[in-house]
Amino acid sequence: MRLLHVRPAGYLPERVSLPDITLSIDLTVFYTSLSLMEDSAMDSLLSAYKTVGDCRYREISGLYWEDFTPGDVFEHRPGRTVLDADNVWFTLLTLNVQQVHFDAAYASKTEWKKLLVDSTFTLALLTGMSVRTVSAKVVANLGWDKVKATHPVFAGDTLYAESTVLHKRLSNSRPGQGIVTVQTRGINQDGIEVMSFERTMLVYRRGHSPEEMAGY
């Protein structure tokens, strides 16, 4: 490694030893370079736009397989306030006839004392919140596992989601794709976890997605 020795105006050799200057400057250069490398990598990972012309940018979403690193945690925003209408319409849409979700008189006699939000709606909502980051570049969902409804959800609750990358591997049969598993947690406005689940996805590798052909 080539070391750079800088002597400021008024430099007095008898007051400052050369080894001290060498060590200080060398560490400064090292940490500055490391910081710039980290910033560059993070900018590349988290860039939300790409340049498509003079002063023209296109929104982009999602991560390629190469961008996922086990242990990384992504906090998904915005949050979403659950409404009575969400709950009632979702139960009608899915033919869920459990009356605790839409019969307020019945629900008032249960331990909940009010309408309980359908847990499959919560699962769908939290999955949707995570799409922009973890599954905007997927070929297909491969499955949901370890789904746990850990706390009741009611109309008026505001939910947030976060996803932790658990592991990833290349596909054995699809060279342009890889498999990623994340754990997603739903948290309400009081910081209480309401649901958690693992989701495994088949994700495009960089340079193998149809986005360019589709104008993305």
UniProtKB/TrEMBL annotation:
Pfam families: MC_hydratase. Gene3D superfamilies: Hotdog Thioesterase. CDD domains: FkbR2. InterPro entries: HotDog_dom_sf, MC_hydratase, MCH/BMMD. GO terms for molecular function: lyase activity. This is MaoC domain protein dehydratase. It comes from Yersinia pseudotuberculosis serotype O:3 (strain YPIII).
